[in-house]
Amino acid sequence: MNIFKKNRPQKLSDNELIVTYKSNGDGIYLGELYKRYSHLVFGVCLKYLKNETESEDAVLQIFENLMEDLKKHEIVNFKSWLHSVARNHCLMHLRKMKSVLRKVNEYEAAYEHEETFAAPFEISEKFEQELILTDLEKAIAVLKEEQRICIELFFLKEKCYNEVAEETGYSVKQVKSYIQNGKRNLAIQMNNLK
């Protein structure tokens, strides 16, 4: 009767799901792990990130990474291993964001300092906005296609999440994730352009 058990991943233990996923790569087994643990991973992410949208994005990223990570690691206790993976993912995310924010703050401080001494050479506000828009266009152009499309539809064409999802065929969760990651990557690109 093992044949019936194979077709019903919800009847398998975590270890059986992992072993089966490793052997055949069928996403249905990973999907079952997601059903069982996504709410717990979300709780861990929310504890560290203190933002629901970022936590939802982190959950999606963590489970996307599991597709490869499960094949690489020997896991004895999946639940505690997954907790560690989620915690580490959030800490790395916070470190990256702290670094980006520090660079943005340094840039702003340097820019404010420049304005103090550059008063005779002031650039018109309109010209400065045009420079920023040009930089923004360059930064958008180097985003991953999914992020670029979602950013353009959401911010430039002012579509809501559902409209972006309808137009692109992505799920609403994917749209939110692409927009969140796109915003973060835009900030990094804008910082690099200065």
CATH H-level name of the largest domain... which superfamily?
A: RNA polymerase sigma factor, region 2, helix turn helix motif
Cα separation of the termini? 65 Å
Strand content: under 5%
Per DSSP, the total helix count is 9
CATH class of the largest domain: Mainly Alpha
User: What structural class is derived from the secondary structure elements?
Assistant: mainly alpha
Biggest beta sheet summary: none
The assigned CATH architecture of the largest domain is Orthogonal Bundle
Using only CA atoms, what is the Rg?
A: 22 Å
Supply the key terms.
2 domains; 9 helices; Arc Repressor Mutant, subunit A; mainly alpha; Rna Polymerase Sigma Factor, Chain: A; 194 residues
